[in-house]
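From the shared-data thread, chain only:
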Amino acid sequence: MESKSFRALVFTSLAHFSNDGVFLVFPLLIVYYTTEEKISVVFLGALAIVYTLLSGLLSPLIGDMADKRDSDAEFIALGIFLEALASGLFALSFLERGLAIPLIALGAILLGSGQAFYHPLGGAILARIFGKSSGRALGINGAMGSLGRAVMPSVISFLILGLGEVLGLGVFTFYMVLVTLAIYVGLMDVRRGSVNLVRKSTEKLDRKFYKFLIVLGALVFMRSMFISGTTTFLGEFVST
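Structure, as C-alpha cells:
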C-alpha cells in the first residue's frame, strides 16, 4: 500500500471513529439533563430530532460544495471541529446553569451540522484513491466508525464520572480539537484534481435509478427513525 493511500485510510478512519463516536453523546447527556438540570425530556427529544434532521438535510449540500471546491480535508476537519464545539457547549451548560437551555440548543445544532460532513466525503476519498480495490479499505473504515459508536459513549461516561460533567466533557472537547488538527494535516494533500472535478461535474444520474433510490431512501429513513428513536431515550429508560 502506497504511503498516500495508507495515510488517507488512517485519517479517514480516525475521522469516522471520532465522528460516529459522538453519535450517542446527546442521548447519554439526556440522562444528566433530566436528573440534574430538571430539563424537560420533551424539549430534549425535540432537540434530538433537530440535530438528526440537520445532519440529513445538510449532507447533500456539503457533498456538493466539496465536489466544487476540492476541499475534502477542510470539510471533514470542519465537521469534527463543529462537533468539538458542540461538546464544549454541552460542558458549559453544566457550568452556566442559568444558560443551560440555549447552550444545549446551540450545541445540538452544531452537533447536527458537524455530523453532516464526514459521511458524504470519507467513503468518496477512499473509493477515489483505492479504485476497484477499495472494498477492504471501506470495510476497515466502516469498522472504525462502528468501533467509535461502541467505545466512545463508555469513555465519555467514565470521564464524566471520574472528572465531573464540566471537566470530563472539557477533556473530550480537547481530544476532538486535536483530532481536527490531525485530520486536516493528514489529508491536506489528498486532492481530487481538476480532471476528476470536470468529469464529475458533467455526470448525470440515469433515470432508471430514481425509483430504486426512492425505495432505498424510504427503507433507510424507516430504519434510521427506529434506531434514532430507540437510542435517544434508551439511557433515560434504563436510568429510570
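Residues 62 and 117 are 6 Å apart (CA to CA).
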